[in-house]
Design a protein that fits this description.
- The structure is a single chain.
- By secondary structure, the protein is of the alpha/beta class.
- 51% of the residues lie in helices and 13% in strands.
- The protein is built from 14 helices and ten strands.
- Strand 4 and strand 5 form a beta hairpin.
- Helix 1 packs across helix 2, helix 5 (94-100) packs parallel to helix 9 (175-195) and helix 11 (226-243) packs antiparallel against helix 12.
């Protein structure tokens, strides 16, 4: 067991996580033991699952074990191996701490389609440490802020304003500010997920910015980070909200200014609006042939809109595309 935790500490790059997670496991009296630590590659491909399975066959012969995971793909591995084994999430990026580690969604990309193969499988424990965020690159850290700003826009407008007011502390990665930010974002997602664990209704609100964002992510061949693509997608959703008179021009501009002030992109180049629309319509969030789009209303809450036409979607995509004559 001691050797296992030594390996875990090396993989996580810090002994702090090792000690704290061990203490939590002991305090909660989990039935079973952690048998292995899988540190999957930074790819979310079905091939990764095939690579992991031989290791599981050697180290996981019983179901009452814990698979301690750092990355998203191994959550799907835990969901499918032996029809589901217990696992622990130890997210070390900001995006994972406030988004993918909460709610039980697991999955892998398939033929460039984002998270197309997956399952709902809740972790037994999630442990996040703000100090690990100080090891991230600037781009990785800022990418996570895309999901955080989204939380404020869809569910807690006061939180959105708090983020703007604490921008300097957030960008400088002040520990206490990050802890408060992570707690609020996790609480927002937790409440939504508990109300709708399998996305039959309200949970779809968390997809604000994701319909166009996923299309951009795919068309850019995943050279942009997820949070960056979500920020671009939020611009498109805010633009549509403005065009449908759901929010004012002032609010629309404030959203763009806020995203850019945190270092997030609001436009993209090198792809066409038509391709963005084409790919977005193959997204798994389609509902009976209609795009299930998440828009904003004046009260600072998100709503589901199934009435978006192809022409409106194309116009929104056009607002995102930057070329030599059009700068946002």
């Amino acid at each position: 067991m001691k050797r296992l935790w030594e390996i875990l500490g090396i993989l996580l790059g810090t002994a702090l996580l090792l000690n704290v997670v061990t203490e939590i496991l002991n305090r909660k009296s989990f039935v079973g033991t952690v048998r292995f630590m899988i540190h999957a590659p930074m790819v979310f491909l079905l091939d990764t699952l095939l690579l992991l399975t031989p290791f599981l066959l050697v180290f996981f012969t019983k179901r009452k074990v814990f698979l301690a995971v750092v990355l998203f793909v191994t959550g799907f591995t835990a969901a499918t191996y032996l029809r589901g084994i217990d696992f622990i999430q130890i997210p070390t990026s900001l995006l994972a701490q406030v988004d993918s580690s909460i709610g039980g969604k697991t999955g892998v990309d398939f033929r460039a389609y984002k998270n197309m193969v997956g399952a709902f499988h809740q972790p037994k424990l999630v442990y996040s440490c703000a100090e690990t965020l100080k090891t991230l690159t600037e781009q990785q850290y800022i990418s996570g802020l895309g999901e955080i700003i989204k939380h404020g826009l869809i569910k807690a407008i006061a939180y959105y304003h708090w983020l703007k007011e604490h921008k300097e502390a957030i960008l400088s990665r002040d520990t206490q500010t990050m802890i408060e930010m992570i707690e609020v974002s996790c609480r927002i997602k937790k409440e939504v997920v508990e109300n709708d664990p399998e996305e039959a209704g309200e949970r779809a609100l968390l997809n604000f910015g994701h319909t166009l964002g996923h299309a951009v992510e795919k068309l850019m061949n995943f050279t942009m980070l997820h949070g960056e693509c979500v920020a671009v997608g939020m611009h498109g959703a805010a633009w549509l909200s403005k065009e449908k008179n759901m929010i004012s021009e002032e609010i629309y501009r404030d959203i763009l200014d806020t995203l850019t002030s945190f270092g997030l992109p609001v436009s993209v180049e090198g792809i066409t609006p038509a391709r963005i629309v084409e790919v977005s319509k193959s997204d798994k969030k389609m509902d009976k042939g209609k795009v299930k789009f998440i828009l904003l209303n004046p009260e600072g809450q998100a709503v589901i809109d199934r009435s978006i036409t192809d022409a409106q979607l194309l116009a929104a995509a056009d607002a995102l595309v930057r070329n030599g004559e059009q700068k946002l």
